[in-house]
Amino acid sequence: MIKQVRRWLPNHPIVLVGDGAYAAVKFALCCIGLPTPVSLVSRLRLDACLYDFPPPEQPGKRGPKPKKGDKQPSLLERIKDQSTEWIPITIDWYEGIKYDLEIFSGISLWYTPGFNPVPIKWVVVRDPAGKLRTEAFFSTDLEASEEQILTWFVLRWNIEVTFEELRAHLGVETQRQWSDLAITRTTPALFGMFSIVVLMALEL
């Protein structure tokens, strides 16, 4: 699907925001490997394998070039490290409120055996008030700011609300159908109906 959207919009910046199911090195490689890369933003496991970038190649050295450098401490280890410097930040959070958080971040190579490592920028977030669990997020766009990465991920809230209201009011995913063709007809129709209702409500 990502490849098809990129073909439709060959030069338009695209940021794909997904939950933890999208946090896979193989999928990230697919996104950044397109002729015009798609930026992937998702959660990152606190035990993800992160590495330094490989050192500069020595002149005259034979053999294959290393794909990664030394292994870095895990994010969980850094969280527990008392010397880790947490930076305060205020961002637009879910439901339109502003929330005070603390973060630290970095750029690393994310590696899974069997695949090439992926350069990512990661952000670890904790709630000084203790209401939210400490989590990590990443982007394949190394130029994105920490605030931008978090803001992109928070935008998922609008999608989650849309799906919840579609299920509650229009019965999406409850249709009694056993044909793929029927699903491809009715599900887009329900989404279209939802859009019409929302636009009508905005005019009231």
TrEMBL record:
InterPro entries in the cross-refs: Transposase_ISC1217
Pfam families named in the record: DDE_Tnp_2 (PF04693)
This protein's name: Transposase IS701-like DDE domain-containing protein
Organism: marine sediment metagenome
